[in-house]
DNA sequence: AAGACGGGGCC
DNA sequence: GGCCCAGTCTT
């Protein structure tokens, strides 16, 4: 690290001392790190999502499973249900697999980036972040915030994702040996509150003086990104099947396969919309079906128009594998948002009919 | 190297 | 409607 890089990290850390965000999984600047379990849990939850979305889930998980060994001992379906709505459900499957590996090691997380990287669900970013934040190891932590800050600081013209190695090199040159965790979190806070994607607030930025993009006059131009591919549109159907058991209405839920879209999650039966574009599926039971409405939902690589169909009457037996779930406890089923939306439609339709 | 993989908030 | 976000895994 040369003199100007020292200036950059020193300026950033001084700014962080005064402006760090107060977050549930975080220790204040300059203080001992939080428990590795909490750092790891928050970092996995934060992958590809936002602080606001994670807070409630972090509170629920740490309340339900205060230690990694308790999470390791939890039932898969309880963890998946607790994760429902947060998305990218492979993260929850890897979270549980990782907790169980750590529990098998005696409940202690490895304390080096290299060893952390071998755990399920810990890629380059998360291994570096946990090493830095939980264990104060020097590690080059590069997330979307850091990509934005570094690409502006050095005015990197190469477009993402091809610019990743160049950005990583830039991050490496400014990462200090001391206060690695604070530095990593400072970069993220700067990206989240000052060096924002739209309308960066350069007047408040501790790095505005050395920033090449700022000098160039149009910092928001960075990072340069490759054009996105168009999202295909799909159509499909979901089925709402009910039965009264002991005077309580139950709805038929299935469990989705362990891999693929919404993998391992409880769901309404559907027609396999994943593979369809025409929206013409076979109903799982014979009978009189009634349209309950339509859900529009956008996934990462396609959008879906899901038509919800209700079966009139009281079914004696559900189709295939599944379970009758009491309607008054449907919130506990842990339906992913797509099916939670579909269920809301069906419930509203049933209440109208009643 | 490219694609699969959620969801919500903002403009 | 498009863009963005504390990325990882598979092929």
From TrEMBL:
Broad enzyme group: hydrolase
Any matching Pfam family: HhH-GPD
Alphabetized InterPro entries for the sequence: DNA_glycosylase (IPR011257), Endonuclease3_FeS-loop_motif (IPR003651), HhH-GPD_domain (IPR003265), HhH_base_excis_C (IPR023170), HhH_motif (IPR000445), MIG/MutY (IPR044298), MutY_C (IPR029119), NUDIX_hydrolase-like_dom_sf (IPR015797)
SUPFAM superfamilies xref list: DNA-glycosylase, Nudix
Cofactor: [4Fe-4S] cluster
GO annotation, biological process: base-excision repair; mismatch repair
Keyword field contains Transmembrane: no
Family label: Belongs to the Nth/MutY family.
Name the record gives this protein: Adenine DNA glycosylase
